[in-house]
Design goal:
By secondary structure, the protein is mainly alpha-helical. The protein has helices at residues 2-14, 19-37, 42-49, 53-62, 67-74, 87-90. It is globular, with a radius of gyration of 19 Å.
Length: 94
């Protein structure tokens, strides 16, 4: 993992990404990952991150992370958007 991070840092620096942009993007991605693993539950994510729930909300606002969009990405598709399987595949042999 260290080698991958080293390569990423080299690529970011070479492409002219500023320190502030790199840190901001890392924070966004990290918080999105933690929220995703906690199914959008901000209280659980805050606990895992070691911050207060209100602090997480402020961080999310600062990073322009929309909690509704995070939760929307985690929800199952609407019934009409779900894949339809033929009845033969649905029936299991007994």
């Amino acid at each position: 993992m260290k080698r991958e991070l080293d390569n990423l840092v080299v690529q970011m620096y070479a492409s002219g990404i500023t320190y502030e942009e790199a840190v901001r993007e890392f924070r966004r991605r990290y918080i999105q990952e933690v929220l995703g693993r906690n199914k959008g539950n901000q209280c659980k994510a805050a606990r895992e991150l070691g911050v207060h729930r209100n602090t997480l909300s402020r961080i999310m606002a600062d990073l322009e992370l929309d909690p509704a969009q995070i939760k929307l990405g985690l929800k199952r598709p609407a019934r009409g958007e779900r894949p339809v399987f033929p009845a033969a595949q649905m029936v299991r042999s007994k």
